[in-house]
Amino acid sequence: MTTIIPLTLHLLVLIGVYELAAGIAGLTGRIDWTAMIDEFERSPALSFVTGFATFAIGAAINIAHHHWTDLLAITVSAIGWIAIVEGVAMMVCGGALMRFARRLVGNQKLISLIAALFGVALILLGLTGRADASL
Fold this sequence. Notes:
Blueprint: E1 2-3, H1 6-28, H2 33-42, H3 44-64, H4 71-104, H5 108-128, E2 130-131
Parallel strand pairs: 1-2
């Protein structure tokens, strides 16, 4: 696929590596998503700090890459905005977000497989895509 902005391709690879790592961690049992949610529910401070970090990462993505010009760029920008919203939600209503997340991670293997496959897809898009400013 083609994008206008070379940064899009780099960010796709980096976000993909994160998703792949999260998926592998869940598939191998390195992380237990339900136990992690338990930790967030027990520690509002942990939830707030993690929310702030998530917000900051999403904001950094959007400061550097706020482009809605093609599908690849839209994907990166949307992921940045999702991180911003998730971070704010963790800071202001962490309990409600964790109750929602608990339903999502009921099947850790499936969620982890989806994350890993999404990560591989993003990595491949980033590595095989090309930037063409003439679009």
